[in-house]
Amino acid sequence: xxxxxxxxxxxxxxxxxxxxxxxxxxxxxxxxxxxxxxxxxxxxxxxxxxxxxxxxxxxxxxxxxxxxxxxxxxxxxxxxxxxxxxxxxxxxxxxxxxxxxxxxxxxxxxxxxxxxxxxxxxxxxxxxxxxxxxxxxxxxxxxxxxxxxxxxxxxxxxxxxxxxxxxxxxxxxxxxxxxxxxxxxxxxxxxxxxxxxxxxxxxxxxxxxxxxxxxxxxxxxxxxxxxxxxxxxxxxxxxxxxxxxxxxxxxxxxxxxxxxxxxxxxxxxxxxxxxxxxxxxxxxxxxxxxxxxxx
Length: 295
Fold this sequence. Notes:
Blueprint: H1 2-46, H2 57-78, H3 86-90, H4 110-123, H5 134-137, H6 140-164, H7 179-183, H8 194-213, H9 220-240, H10 246-266, E1 276-282, E2 287-293
Antiparallel strand pairs: 1-2
């Protein structure tokens, strides 16, 4: 009987020892977890915010040099094309124009073409307004390079199409346009619409960059609205001025818009996203980081 009681006491003692050891382990693990969470919180609080854009020099520099170099070269060629003869202009027939564009050959307003230049030259320096934002201004060099890359890509498509394709502008078919204007070499530069393409690149690039740096700003719709109005207004004025057919404008506007939006998007730091938020928290019993991802 005494032996049985002794064995029972020894077993109870060992069990309590094991339990105490487990409890100690839990306390150590809990302490370690608390310390790890605290370290994460300190890292989040002490480190600078991640950069918005990341460049890939091995890709971006050659791409910009090639597209920019071609655009610069082609610009000197597309505006020095050989002039047309009077006979060539008189031989033009509106019935040879595709049905989608044919009606535009009867449109010509000289003042509209002049006004379109105001939109064009006003839009080119528009990204400079981004420098009013302190968060963007610190990345001025990077933003400037991305803008140059976007414009160079648009320029590649614009100058390449005009260089390879001679398409008479709508004004060449209009009876009220002076023959001197119709025979100019530049009157064969209808395809594609360069003004709306470059205006779209500038304005949508500006809107996209502002939105990336200020995802919660109430001004975002204003920037995108301005981009739509400026691009659409330029396209409309180029049509009214007899400079481009509708298909020229649609293709040019599409290329410019995609370039202005995609270049910033493709360079965006994947660690930064409007859909994801990381918020550190500290409580009485625990601390850590709260991660939220919006589907």
